[in-house]
Structures are given as structure tokens and as C-alpha cells.
Write a structure and sequence with these properties.
- By secondary structure, the protein is of the alpha/beta class.
- The protein folds into two domains: about 230 residues, Type I PLP-dependent aspartate aminotransferase-like (Major domain) (Aspartate Aminotransferase, domain 2); about 120 residues, Aspartate Aminotransferase, domain 1 (Alpha-Beta Complex), CATH 3.90.1150.
- Helices cover about 40% and strands about 15% of the residues.
- The protein is built from 13 helices and 13 strands.
- α6 runs parallel beside α7.
- The protein binds pyridoxal-5'-phosphate.
Length: about 375
């Protein structure tokens, strides 16, 4: 049996409805910031439970513009998780600030106990990353941020509709950033992103920032960017946003089947800690594996397209060398890079495929 990683051919096997909407849109020739963008923003804000949602060009821009809207830039430091996808660090850099990395917990999110030591006189913000669809431990982070007067911008790019104690990921900090990249849980046909907030002044400022700082056709209020949510992507988003709950529930059910099947493989496989008060949305399903690389080869030899996110610890990437981090600085992040394996968990997997993955992983664990 083959278990592919990408489900995009299945997801968009019947695109006629979307194509018809795009054709109708073309007839209006209202090709930037058309009504589809506003419609998507209203639906997105209501999904996350915030007053405002601002569509932008990517998840990376959602983070960079958030920092800019808060006045964070040159000379400032921004703390984030050492195991994140490069885009978080790239966005801090794009805003002109210096990224400061902090190690994470075995549940993949920034370790609140380590943040305080990383704060300096230049620190302006913390970006907790809800990696894999897990939710960072927000209560201590928000309390610390209040005490030390730091802004909290959530990187919720992998965590659409995740929540902790009933509070949605992205809606707990002053701003929350999402990605609609084709590989994310709410995915469009290219790059797109969204920022959510309850703050009317930030909403106004972000709308200026994403559109050259233009107040109207002729007046430039602030210096901004060209980072609009593309109208065609908004059309795809409007079609898909209705399916988000179904998509997410399928992923959660698949993950629950895996968790139940892999709980007793002590020594070979360890299921990450699952905090009971979190609704995690499994953008990725990851396990710790003692013989990770051998398991990866075994799965591929048996037709299962497992992945490794991410094989090189971010702090040790050549592109971050100027930050001066050394092997051993982030033991948990390094351990994760060496032992995590990602299994397909998406909404298009059949029950047979899930059973087959379970069977092959268990078979591997029995072998020596
Ligand atoms: C995908 C992702 C981003 C960036 O999103 P893009 O839309 O690809 O720019 C940022 N942070 C995390 C954790 C992501 O997974």
C-alpha cells in the first residue's frame, strides 16, 4: 500500500466551483483588495473569535508586519522558539530586529521558564510558536510579558482553530499570525497570510502597512509595503474556510488513532506529552523514535512517505551563524532534530492507510 504525504491532488480533484468563482471575479477586473478579500477577512475573524482579521501576502509577512505595526525594528530584540520554521526568524529579521532564540519543551513549544533569562534591555516582544498545531503554554508567557512590558505576537501559522482552555491560538496575544500556504491546514493555491487582533488602532495600521501606507488613492500616511492578500487566493480561501472544522476533526481523529496505537512501544517510540487542556490540530503528527533514521528508511521502503521536520537544528543553520549559537546551546531542540519523525495525518487518508501505517511502525519496532 502507498501512503503519500501530499494530499493536494485529492483535495483539489474537483476544482470547478472555485474556477467558476475565479472566472466571475475576472469579469469584474477588481483584481486587488476586491470584495472577496473583505469577505474572507470577516469569515476568518469570526472563525478565530477576534474583532479584526487583515489579509496579507504570506504568513511570514503576517509576522513581519505585526512587528512593524507595534513599532518594533532596528535595535530591538524579539524572542522566539529555537525549533521553529525559519520563517519566524526571517520575519523578525525582515522587521529589522534581532532574533533571540529560546529552547523548547518536549511538547514542541517555547519553554516559558527559559524566556526570562533571554530578556535584555532591548527585548520588545516574544513570539510563541504553536508548532505542529500544539499550543504554547500561554498563561506564564502572557504573565511574564505583562510584568516585563513585552508584546506577545503569536505565530499560529500551524495552528488554525487550535485552542487552550477555550482560548483560540492567535487570539491570546496582541496580534496573531496565520499562513494559508498550500501545506497548511487551511490552504490556498499559493502564498497568503492573515493577522488577527482585537485592537482597532493596530487593525488600521496593518491595513495601511500592507498597502503602501496609502490612506486613499493619493495620500501616503506611513511608509508601508505591498503585502495584500491576493483576491484569487481569497476566493480559494472562501471556498475552503467552510471545511476547516471537518478538516481539523479528521486530523484530530487520525492522530488519536496513532496515539492509541503507539503508546506501548516503550523505548522505540515515544508519543510527545499531550496536555489535557489543549485542542491540538495536528498540522504535523510527530513521534520521537529511538532509531529515527532507520524507521524513516523502513517506512519509505514500505511505501509510506514519512518526513523529517526539521533535520538541521535552526540555531545551527549557516544562515543564522551571525547570531553566534553553538552546538549544545539548545539541547531539547537538538534532540528533537535528531529523533522526531513526521507521519501523514491529513484529512484525506483512508482508515486502511492509517491502519497500514500503524502496522508498519509496530513491525519496525519489533525488529532488531
Ligand atoms: C508556514 C510557517 C510560517 C510562514 O508562513 P508562509 O505563509 O509560508 O510565509 C511561519 N511560521 C511557521 C511556524 C510556519 O509553519
Amino acid at each position: 500500500m502507498r501512503v503519500r504525504y501530499s494530499y493536494l491532488p485529492q483535495q483539489f480533484a474537483e476544482p470547478e466551483e472555485i474556477l467558476a468563482a475565479i472566472r466571475a471575479h475576472l469579469q469584474t477586473c477588481h483584481l486587488t483588495l476586491g470584495p472577496e478579500v473583505g469577505q474572507f477577512e470577516r469569515a476568518f475573524a469570526s472563525l478565530i473569535g477576534t474583532t479584526f482579521a487583515i489579509g496579507v501576502a504570506s504568513g511570514t509577512d503576517a509576522l513581519a508586519l505585526s512587528l512593524r505595526a507595534l513599532g518594533i525594528g532596528h535595535g530591538d530584540e524579539v524572542i522566539t522558539a529555537a525549533n521553529t520554521f525559519i520563517a519566524t526568524v526571517g520575519a523578525i529579521n525582515a522587521a529589522g530586529a534581532r532574533p533571540v532564540l529560546v529552547d523548547v519543551t518536549p511538547a514542541f513549544t517555547i519553554d516559558p521558564g527559559r524566556i526570562e533569562r533571554a530578556i535584555t534591555a532591548r527585548t520588545k516582544a516574544v513570539i510563541p510558536v504553536h508548532l505542529t498545531g500544539e499550543v504554547a503554554d500561554m498563561e506564564p508567557i502572557l504573565a511574564l510579558a505583562r510584568r516585563r512590558r513585552l508584546q506577545v505576537v503569536e505565530d499560529a501559522c500551524q495552528a488554525i482553530t487550535a485552542s487552550s482552555r477555550g482560548r483560540r491560538a492567535g487570539a491570546m496575544g496582541v496580534l496573531g499570525a496565520f499562513s494559508l500556504h498550500p501545506l497548511k491546514n487551511l490552504n490556498v493555491w499559493g502564498d497568503a497570510g492573515v493577522i488577527v487582533t482585537n485592537d482597532p488602532a493596530l487593525n488600521e495600521r496593518l491595513r495601511l502597512l500592507r498597502n503602501h501606507g496609502l490612506k486613499n488613492r493619493d495620500e501616503v500616511e506611513i511608509l508601508g509595503y505591498n503585502s495584500r492578500l491576493d483576491s484569487i487566493q481569497a476566493i480559494v480561501g472562501n471556498w475552503l474556510i467552510r471545511q476547516v472544522d471537518d478538516i481539523t476533526n479528521r486530523r484530530i481523529a487520525n492522530a488519536a488513532a496513532y496515539d492509541a496505537a503507539f503508546g506501548d512501544l516503550d523505548g522505540e517510540i515515544t508519543v510527545p506529552p499531550r496536555r489535557p487542556d489543549v485542542r491540538r490540530v495536528f498540522h504535523l503528527y510527530q513521534l520521537y523514535a529511538r532509531r529515527r533514521d532507520a524507521l524513516y528508511r523502513y517506512l519509505h521502503a514500505n511505501g509510506i512517505e514519512a518526513k523529517i521536520h526539521y533535520p538541521i537544528p535552526l540555531p545551527l543553520q549557516p544562515g543564522l551563524a551571525h547570531l553566534g549559537y553553538r552546538p549544545g546551546d539548545f539541547p531539547e531542540t537538538e534532540r528533537q532534530a535528531a529523533s522526531l519523525i513526521t507521519l501523514p495525518v491529513d484529512q484525506h487518508l483512508s482508515e486502511e492507510q492509517i491502519r497500514y501505517v500503524i502496522e508498519v511502525v509496530r513491525e519496525f519496532c519489533r525488529s532488531r
